[in-house]
Amino acid sequence: MILINAVIFDLDDTLYLESEYVLSGFNAVAEYLSVKYGISKYEIYIFLKNQFLTHGREKIFNYLYHYLLAKIIPDNEAGLVEELVTVYRNHEPTIVLEKNIVTGLLELRNNYDLKLGLLTDGLPLMQKKKVLALGIEDYFDEIVYSWEIGCPKPHVDGINYLLAKLGTTSKNTIMVGDNPSHDIEPAVTLSMPSIRVLTGRFKCVASNACYGADVELSSMSQVFIEIKKCLK
Q1: In terms of Cα–Cα distance, which of 148, 164, 158, 165 is closest to 183?
Q2: Do 42 and 59 belong to one domain?
Q3: Which of 90, 107, 128 is the last residue of a domain?
Q4: 215 and 112, same structural domain?
Q5: How many separate domains does the chain show?
Q6: Do 12 and 23 have their domain in common?
Q7: What 8-state DSSP symbol labels residue 143?
Q8: Are 95 and 72 a contacting pair, CB within 8 Å?
Q9: Is-contact 21 97, C-beta < 8 A?
């Protein structure tokens, strides 16, 4: 039986739902436009939310400009979109870690001889604000921002870098994530035990038949139970 001495977690859509961060950012953008241009905050937020839920985030501020802002701020689409992207990226997110996640992380940290790592993908500015807002810095022995070290997911070097910082090996470390291509495939490539949680925007995306997780579970509560089984 393989000795497990570390667990690496993904952040977005694993420990919390990324959609909560997105909506938090839209609220900040709506507040900004309301204060600066006197436009209805509610109308802006509802448009962004509905557009996101229906069509996703791609070019969402361009759509907002044509729907609502062009008449008020004409001939400045590129400049205003860039401005709103900056507001979105720099906002202080109002996101919360669910109680069962807090309990699960603390139990692993306090009751087991186990190192915990966090490997997160995306702009470091945004990811660090998420970590700070969720209050999870002290839950992990090491936190690695993959873009900051030049190893964006699904590059295996991000995992290897974190493994080295944790002082462990791939075979002795469980990977927990939601994204079958960014979290699970590189873990399988490194022969890591892996658990995929079916939450967030990738929950209905099928895993690669050759790179599937050892276990797929529908909630983080189930994930923590599975991790503890591996530690017995």
Answers
A1: 158
A2: yes
A3: 90
A4: yes
A5: 2
A6: no
A7: E
A8: no
A9: no
Nearest to 230 by CA among 112, 98, 53: 112
Using the 3D structure, point to which of 59, 90, 121 is the last residue of a domain. Answer: 90
Host domain of residue 150: 6-16+97-231
Q: For strand 173-177 and strand 115-120, is the pairing parallel, antiparallel, or unpaired? A: unpaired
* Domain contains 44: yes
User: What is the pLDDT tens value at each position of the chain, 232 positions in all?
Assistant: 689 999 999 999 999 999 999 999 999 999 999 999 999 999 999 999 999 999 999 999 999 999 999 988 888 899 999 999 999 999 999 999 999 999 999 999 999 999 999 999 999 999 999 999 999 999 999 999 999 999 999 999 999 999 999 999 999 999 999 999 999 999 999 999 999 999 999 999 988 878 899 999 999 999 999 999 999 7
Distance CA 200, CA 68 (A): 29
Q: Is residue 1 part of a domain?
A: no
The crossing angle, in degrees rounded to 10, of helices 220-230 and 99-111 is 10
